[in-house]
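Database export, one record per block. Field names are fixed; values are copied verbatim from the stored entry.
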Amino acid sequence: MPVPELAPDEVAQLLAEHPQWTLTREGKAITRSFQFADFSEAWGFMSRVALLAEAQDHHPEWFNVYAKVEVTLTTHDAGPSGGLSQRDVRLARAIDALV
């Protein structure tokens, strides 16, 4: 069953409340880059995000090189072909609270 996709005004509100996140994939995802002091800090952050994601049953796409972590959020079953949903809003809010 598809998850409701965010309306354009909800996407605008998400970006206003979380200005470090940027819209990507033709408006179907948001992404944010994090820079840490070293690999250990980056890995610790990823571990904390993994626990949040598992608890929310909504898992990010991410990329890590040494002290940099890039996180992308999208809901693959939102709307007819994927997009942003309240799942992404909740996880972005939780991730932002970690840093």
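Remark 1: The radius of gyration is 13 Å.
Remark 2: Strands lie at 22-24, 29-35, 61-65, 68-73.
End of record.
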